[in-house]
Structure prediction request, 113 residues.
Amino acid sequence: MARRTKGIGHWRRVIAEYEASGKTQSAFVAERGIPTTTFGKWWRLLRSAPRGPGGRPIQPLRLVEVEVVPEAAPAVTVFELGLPGGCPLKFETGADPDYVVELAVAFARRAGC
Prediction:
């Protein structure tokens, strides 16, 4: 017959019952028929686990799968300024207006306008 292993949930309950009982470890395990070494191993393991609010053990972190969806690139609006001589200047919306004026004046002077 295969030996059945009890999980961590079982041992959390047993340790909580022991702590609430007020009994010594020896008395508690003898009453329940639990091997002292088995109980001691679980008690040390669960007592050394980090604790959260109310003294509850903090559950280990789990990795979860996520899907990363890229954001659509914002639409860029371009406006064009026609200069004498047919040379267009193109700017993105939001360009500094003072910069656009300076550039247009400089090109116009070069073109002899």
Remarks:
- Residues 78-111 form one domain.
